[in-house]
């Protein structure tokens, strides 16, 4: 009888433990927070017109319309292509240059004043100059995005080289390793976590800048969609563009982080 009672009590507690597990998992993933935000957003939007604050239901409906007529897909492709080109160009330019500047103290001493000056010049301040030099085509947009991504990656790479353990460098030199070998086997591997962080920062910079570039000098892309929506009094489209950018940026960052942890874990990437 006792064993039966214990078994029955255990069954009674199972739903509680099950519910607790669901709540814990949901909270960890942030799903409950997002659900709560959506509910609050929908309730607040009931007090306003769709022109001022559309609710999530209205935004989803307009999202479906823009997907079905192909407008959103086209804008996503243009924005991703521009951001990707600028980001990759920034990586190709910033990482090798950062390794070079960081590895030579005199070069770093000469370069630091210029880097500290130009990294505080906003991208938007250079828009007119880039348009005058490169025209209103894709070149000016990609150049702006490259500029926005360049400095975070460059400065992080230089910092990574500077953080190299001097004891490891001296140990390699004592074992007869050449300067090039020390650089390739000690300096570069120890810099990888910093380089990776710079690449992630550059990715966010490319997404921020592509919106600004498309608002100013484009007739397509998510930035243009957000900007032009005001002409049609379609606040819902603005929200569609903003949320799409957020989803794309978050997904790209999660993918980059996953790949870094998967393939660069041995170098200290977390």
Automatic annotation (TrEMBL):
Similarity annotation: Belongs to the binding-protein-dependent transport system permease family.
Lipid bilayer topology: Multi-pass membrane protein
GO biological process: transmembrane transport
Name of this chain's protein: NitT/TauT family transport system permease protein
Organism of provenance: Anaerocolumna xylanovorans DSM 12503
Entry GO terms, CC: plasma membrane
Keyword Membrane: yes
UniProt-listed Gene3D superfamilies: MetI-like
Record's keyword terms, sorted: Cell membrane, Membrane, Transmembrane, Transmembrane helix, Transport
Phylogenetic placement of the source organism: Bacteria, Bacillati, Bacillota, Clostridia, Lachnospirales
Chain ranges passing through the membrane: 21-44, 86-104, 116-136, 142-161, 182-199, 205-227, 239-260
Domain ABC transmembrane type-1 stretches: 76-260
């Amino acid at each position: 009888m006792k064993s039966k009672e214990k078994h029955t009590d255990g069954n009674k507690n199972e739903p509680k433990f099950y519910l607790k597990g669901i709540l814990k998992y949901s909270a960890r993933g942030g799903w409950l927070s997002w659900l709560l935000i959506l509910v609050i957003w929908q309730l607040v939007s009931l007090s306003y017109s769709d022109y001022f604050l559309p609710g999530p239901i209205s935004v989803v409906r307009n999202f479906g319309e823009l997907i079905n007529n192909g407008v959103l897909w086209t804008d996503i492709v243009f924005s991703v292509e521009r951001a990707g080109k600028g980001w990759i160009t920034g990586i190709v330019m910033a990482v090798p240059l950062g390794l070079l500047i960081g590895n030579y103290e005199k070069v770093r001493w000469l370069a630091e004043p210029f880097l500290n000056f130009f990294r505080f010049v906003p991208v938007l301040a250079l828009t007119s100059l880039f348009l005058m030099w490169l025209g209103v085509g894709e070149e000016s947009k990609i150049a702006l995005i490259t500029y926005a991504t360049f400095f975070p990656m460059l400065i992080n790479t230089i910092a990574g080289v500077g953080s190299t353990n001097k004891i490891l460098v001296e140990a390699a030199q004592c074992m007869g390793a050449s300067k090039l070998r020390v650089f390739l086997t000690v300096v570069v591997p120890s810099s990888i976590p910093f380089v990776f962080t710079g690449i992630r920062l550059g990715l966010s910079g490319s997404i921020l800048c592509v919106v600004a570039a498309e608002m100013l000098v484009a007739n397509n892309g998510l930035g243009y969609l957000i900007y032009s929506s005001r002409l049609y009094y379609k606040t819902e489209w603005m929200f569609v563009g903003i949320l799409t950018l957020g989803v794309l940026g978050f997904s790209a960052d999660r993918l980059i982080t996953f790949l870094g942890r998967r393939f660069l874990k041995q170098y200290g990437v977390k």
